[in-house]
Amino acid sequence: MPKSKRNRLVNMTQVSKKTREDKDKLFANIRETGMNGFIKSQLPKFAAAHPQIEISVSPRPAKHPTIVGHYINGNSRSLLVKNMQPMDILRAAESMRDTNGEKLRRANKPVTSINPSVRGIWSPYHGTGEAV
Which residues form the Ribosomal protein/NADH dehydrogenase domain (predicted)? Predict the structure, then answer.
């Protein structure tokens, strides 16, 4: 290897030719992951198993992939699926299928009821005040 004046190695490239075949083999596995892999492998099975769901695929160049669910009650929910594997995207689509589209609400009490209590709220000041 040639050396420079200050005894440092000079960069010399060892590769003289790159072939396109190597690039295709290298990126073959990458094409089968993510949203493209989901569309090729899992989406046809999911669509065949659930014919009541309308599925449309629209390209969004230079944007992250998302799944958008439009529900019958008028609500819609979107989910960002970037950097997910096809099976993870399938799980996300199934969870979106299983929800009803209503907004998530926090339950402050263990029992949620639309009817008020029949007996009312207990208070120590009500009643006859009998000694125990």
Answer: 29-100
pTM (predicted TM-score): 0.60
The neighbouring-strand residues paired with 68 are 78
Question: What span, in angstroms and rounded, lies between the C-alpha atoms of 27 and 36?
Answer: 13
Instruction: With CA atoms as reference, report the closest residue to 91 among 100, 106, 79, 103.
Output: 79
- DSSP for 91-113, written as a single string: HHHHHHHHS-SPPP----SSS--
Give the model confidence (pLDDT) of 65-93 as tens digits: 999 999 998 888 899 999 999 999 999 99
Domains and CATH numbers, the chain: 25-98 (3.40.30.10)
| Rg (the chain; Cα; Å) | 30
